[in-house]
Design goal:
The complex is a heterodimer of chains A (364) and B (108).
Chain A: H1 2-33, H2 35-52, H3 56-61, H4 67-74, H5 88-98, H6 107-141, H7 145-154, H8 156-183, H9 205-225, H10 232-235, H11 243-278, H12 282-316, H13 321-340, H14 343-363
Helix pairs in contact in A: 1-6, 1-7, 1-8, 1-9, 1-13, 1-14, 2-6, 6-13, 7-8, 8-14, 11-12
Chain B: H1 2-33, E1 41-42, E2 46-47, H2 52-72, H3 89-97
Antiparallel strand pairs in B: 1-2
Helix pairs in contact in B: 1-2
The chains are: A mainly alpha (364), B mainly alpha (108).
Chain lengths: 364, 108
């Protein structure tokens, strides 16, 4: 029972860490691409259509629209605006500039719907962005949830490490990131009651670069810590459709490796023999020559043992290439979906499991 | 006027559908053609050392992530106001008499 709890804890810790990485990458993309301004602009276009009966483009392209109005529209910097732009006073003026006959009588009520739309569509877009980023990251890095689970379940030492130290590390990282986010969230929609100067603040280039650098470092750390279940599809040297082709490729690779190892041994031996030749004393020379021969034999034996081990591993790996492809694809797809659920979910699970694990561990 | 609006909506729908079909076909072509580059030497890039299965996996993964992005985050994910010709006074009168209901929320 404890092993199962430990496996789930370790798994949740890995998913939490990955979710945090996805969150960081999502945040970087959100800040680069500014979806919030895009949603705001879209909603204003809809409002214009509802109140004037004309589309945004038709107003801008119409010959009847005064040049002054076109200049006003072209001068709007959407990236600087927040929800407070959807204010009855501003928009009554703005819509009447666009069209004198604009229907602005019940604007207040409509604006509430439009503000809700902006925030809803922004949130939905961010959830979908997290899903796309999570899927992209897990599929391209080939982070397989099945292999991670199986490795944790079968390897006791690995399980203990991930359920203890790694879970603490992930929790700490989540808490640090939550603190950082609450202090400064550059692209977060602002409170409409706040003055316009504080709205929709754009992060500076340095902040974005720092975010990207942090992501890169954390990703490297993750790949170092969770080396199992990651990138198998890219490491497989002989991923061939037919078994005969696969075996031929493996044989070729073995021969090539053996040849390279032999060459490397030869180079090392030549270096050793060159050192021996420099010696003057005959007895010392004899001893060093014997040492060089022993070293050669030891290296040859080690290489042969490694080759036998690799051959045994290859023989044991009965999974066909299409099988590996399907297994890795489905596993990575599952990881992407699990990771996209969100860091808070995995954090809560980890907290619950940690509290469950402590008494269980005390009993054993 | 009504018929013209209906026709223009149908035309824009067909255009967008056509664009989607073309993009989907291109994605399928890429998925099938990319693995054949395995082992080829591209000038300026060098020899592609990945096997065709790795190339297939990479293309499939990338396309899946891009499809989710385009569906959920890109412009296809949003509800676009109908591109009707509303410069005439008739259209405006209709609209002013009966305000248009709120459109679906962002297509979700």
């Amino acid at each position: 029972m404890l092993s199962l709890i430990e496996t789930i804890t370790g798994f949740a810790a890995i998913m939490l860490m990955l979710s945090l990485l996805v969150k960081t990458l999502t945040s970087v993309m959100k800040n680069y691409l500014d979806y919030y301004s895009d949603n705001l602009k879209h909603e204003v276009k809809r409002l214009v259509l509802e109140t004037t009966g004309k589309t945004w483009d038709s107003i801008l392209n119409s010959k009847d629209t005064p040049e002054q109005v076109k200049t006003i529209v072209m001068d709007i910097h959407w990236e600087r605006l927040g929800d407070e732009f959807l204010n009855q006073e501003y928009l009554t003026w703005f819509l009447q500039q666009l069209d004198k006959n604009a229907l602005v009588s019940d604007l207040g009520t409509r604006l509430k719907i439009h503000i809700a739309n902006v925030s809803y569509t922004f949130q939905m877009r961010m959830k979908n962005l997290a899903l796309a980023v999570g899927l992209g990251l897990c599929l391209l890095c080939n982070i397989n949830a099945f292999t991670i689970w199986r490795s944790l379940y079968t390897d006791q030492q690995l399980r203990a490490t991930f359920a203890d130290h790694y879970a603490d590390k992930a929790t700490q990282f989540a808490e640090d990131q939550a603190k950082g986010t609450s202090q400064t969230n550059p692209a977060k929609p602002v409170d409409p009651a706040k003055p316009a100067e504080q709205s929709n603040p754009k992060p500076t280039k340095d902040q974005l670069d720092a975010q990207l650098k942090e992501f890169r470092q954390n990703m490297q750390g993750f790949l170092t810590d969770v080396s199992f279940g990651v990138g198998r599809i890219w490491r497989e040297e002989c991923l061939r459709f037919k078994d005969e082709d696969k075996r031929a490729c493996q044989k070729e690779m073995r021969e090539e490796t053996a040849k390279k190892q032999q060459e490397a041994r030869g180079v090392r031996n030549s270096e050793r023999m060159a050192e021996v030749e420099k010696l003057q004393d005959a007895e010392a020379k004899k001893q060093e020559t014997q040492k060089a021969i022993d070293a050669w034999n030891a290296e040859e034996k080690a290489d042969a043992e490694a080759a036998v081990l690799k051959l045994a591993q290859e023989k044991r790996g009965t999974q066909s290439a299409p099988g590996i492809l399907i297994y890795e694809f489905l596993g990575s797809l599952l990881t992407g979906i699990l990771v996209s659920i969100g860091a808070p979910y995995w954090h809560d699970i980890l907290q619950a499991l940690s509290s469950l694990r402590s008494p269980a561990k005390a009993k054993t | 006027m009504e018929e013209t609006g209906w026709k223009s909506q149908l035309r824009s729908f067909l255009y967008s559908l056509q664009a989607k079909i073309i993009v989907s076909l291109l994605a399928i072509v890429l998925l099938v053609a990319l693995p054949f580059l395995s082992g080829c030497t591209i000038p300026g890039v060098g020899k592609i050392t990945f096997s065709w299965m790795q190339l297939f996996y990479g293309a499939l993964s990338l396309e899946l992530a891009l499809a989710v992005y385009t569906w959920g985050v890109g412009n296809w994910s949003r509800f676009e106001p109908p591109q009707r010709s509303a410069d005439s006074s008739t259209a405006q009168k209709d609209n002013t008499g009966n305000p248009q209901a709120a459109a679906p929320l962002g297509g979700h």
